[in-house]
Write a sequence for this structure.
């Protein structure tokens, strides 16, 4: 294995290799709708009429609707980042192809640093920033979100959008607490397993295998946040809101085969989809 200061383990190499090679239509086709490539799931009520109507435009209607739902999810997260000024600096941890970063800049005018261990995603997102004319304010870096190298206290807000399941939360939240200034905001949207159910269900194990990730328990998020001076101020259970997205996706040409595992896990109570906002104290 070639030495790499960003990738610190064999597991991180495997995750990076996965996302460097990833060209899934459920990510790329949706991003082509308006140039915001989100790489996450959706929330909200589905317009089921997209499955009806002329067959020749059915795929386009489905793509537009799935993208609308994932954009609602991103807007929900960005709205929780707190009041931001144009001069504020925020960080997208696990930034993918940049959708949430561009949205934060659009809504708040702030400076955004995106961090990813996928070199291909970083290159893609920086090219998007150039094309959108915001490369002076939105930048993407090939860095490890557990050890970013950014200055202590240099960010007003940080978020993870469905990326926490690739790292140890104790290490992640320690780095976030270092980077956030006092009073700064941390937000994540994540799937977590429900401690009240017991150990991770079979469906969760299938999701872990599909995405090469390790879904954490709900209690681990709160324990590690508080241990690292990130005090939760808002918790929103989005589980019921995300089920319609998965029900629609399962019926489309963009299904990847993992949809039923998500639906089973959400419906049997073993899996929850949460938004957690916390302040750095």
């Amino acid at each position: 294995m070639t030495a790499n200061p960003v990738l610190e383990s064999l597991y991180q190499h495997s995750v990076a290799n996965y996302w460097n090679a990833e060209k899934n239509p459920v990510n790329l086709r949706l991003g082509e709708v308006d140039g915001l490539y989100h790489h996450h799931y959706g929330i909200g009520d589905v317009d089921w009429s997209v499955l009806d109507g002329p067959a020749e435009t059915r795929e386009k209607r489905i793509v537009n609707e799935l993208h609308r739902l994932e954009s609602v999810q991103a807007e929900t997260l960005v709205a929780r980042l707190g009041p931001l000024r144009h001069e504020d600096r925020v960080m997208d941890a696990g930034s993918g192809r940049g959708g949430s970063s561009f949205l934060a800049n659009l809504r708040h005018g702030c400076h955004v640093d995106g961090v990813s261990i996928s070199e291909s995603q970083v290159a893609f997102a920086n090219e998007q920033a150039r094309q959108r004319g915001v490369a002076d304010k939105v930048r993407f870096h090939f860095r490890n979100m557990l050890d970013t190298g950014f200055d202590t206290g240099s960010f007003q807000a940080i978020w993870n959008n469905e990326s926490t399941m690739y790292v140890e939360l104790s290490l992640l939240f320690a780095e976030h607490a270092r980077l956030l200034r006092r009073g700064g905001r941390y937000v994540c949207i994540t799937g977590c397993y429900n401690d009240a159910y017991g150990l991770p269900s079979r469906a969760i194990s299938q999701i872990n295998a599909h995405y090469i990730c390790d879904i954490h328990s709900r209690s681990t998020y709160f324990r590690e946040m508080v241990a690292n001076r990130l005090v939760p101020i808002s918790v929103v259970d989005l589980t019921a809101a995300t089920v319609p997205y998965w029900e629609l996706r399962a019926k489309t040409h963009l299904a990847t085969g993992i949809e039923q595992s998500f639906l089973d896990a959400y419906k049997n109570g073993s899996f929850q989809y949460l938004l957690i906002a916390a302040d750095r104290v």
In short: The radius of gyration is 18 Å. The beta strands are 89-93, 111-116, 138-142, 155-161, 180-193, 230-237, 271-280. Residues 16-280 form a domain with the Rossmann fold fold (CATH 3.40.50.150). The chain has one domain: 16-280.
